[in-house]
Specification:
This protein is mainly alpha-helical and about 230 residues long. The protein is built from 12 helices and 3 strands. Helix 6 packs antiparallel against helix 9, helix 6 (about 85-105) runs antiparallel to helix 12 (about 200-230) and helix 7 (about 120-130) packs antiparallel against helix 8.
């Protein structure tokens, strides 16, 4: 925890002169997504507030915002913890992804499509070459955020930002990220190619299959992992 708090103290500059609970929650959300605070970690008000240089009330409001996003959970008489997802949570995340991501792709108008996912696909390939499998998972999420961005909807982007942040909680529990993420590097590239060729129906079909298989793989691994920890 000491190392995480030192890194967190470096984020104080991001708060600027107008420190707000929203800015604090942005910082903590990013740190949770990066795995600095793994699922099940108790978050100390005194330590984190001191590292960021914010008041207890500001930090509590940030915790409240992240609890609303289902990233944190408050346990009576115990404190605030990074949430540990259930298998049902993971299944619900993927239902939401199917509904939103596939709908976005199917509703695209005439090509060409303003997809900026090529950089994310290459990011995933580069991370794989370096053996950085958590980095592959991050690149994967970046690619799917680009798919969602095709809707050009701030509300959809905000909804899925929360969904993808929750998904990262599941990723951090899995102990074999290579097995989890490696198969989808090529599948992201295939979706990208279909969209570059203007074939939204093919892209939507590939995406639906991708999400189905990804859910099956993640739930299988996650159920075993959570069961072991329980």
């Amino acid at each position: 925890m000491a190392e995480q708090l030192k890194d967190l103290a470096d984020d104080r500059a991001l708060l600027g002169r107008t420190s707000t609970a929203e800015r604090v929650s942005d910082i903590l959300r990013s740190r949770i997504a990066e795995g600095y605070f793994p699922p099940g970690t108790r978050l100390s008000e005194d330590s984190i507030g001191g590292a960021l240089g914010v008041s207890r009330n500001t930090l509590r409001e940030a915790f409240r915002l992240l609890t609303h996003e289902r990233l944190l959970v408050h346990e009576l008489n115990r404190g605030v913890f990074v949430r540990v997802l259930t298998v049902e949570d993971v299944e619900d995340i993927y239902r939401t992804r199917q509904l939103v991501e596939c709908a976005v792709v199917r509703s695209l108008g005439q090509p060409p499509y303003a997809l900026e996912g090529a950089a994310a696909v290459e990011e995933g390939r580069r991370a794989a070459r370096e053996g950085d499998w958590k980095g592959v998972g991050t690149a994967n999420i970046h690619f799917h955020r680009e798919l969602v961005a095709l809707a050009a909807s701030e509300r959809t982007d905000e909804l899925m930002r929360s969904v993808f942040a929750e998904l990262r909680l599941a990723f951090h529990v899995v102990d074999d990220p290579q097995r989890l993420h490696e198969p989808y590097i090529a599948r992201n590239a295939a979706i990208l190619q279909a969209l570059q060729e203007g074939d939204r129906e093919q892209a939507a079909s590939l995406l639906a299959g991708y999400l189905h298989d990804s859910l099956e793989r993640l739930v299988g691994v996650y159920r075993r992992r959570v069961g072991e920890d329980g």
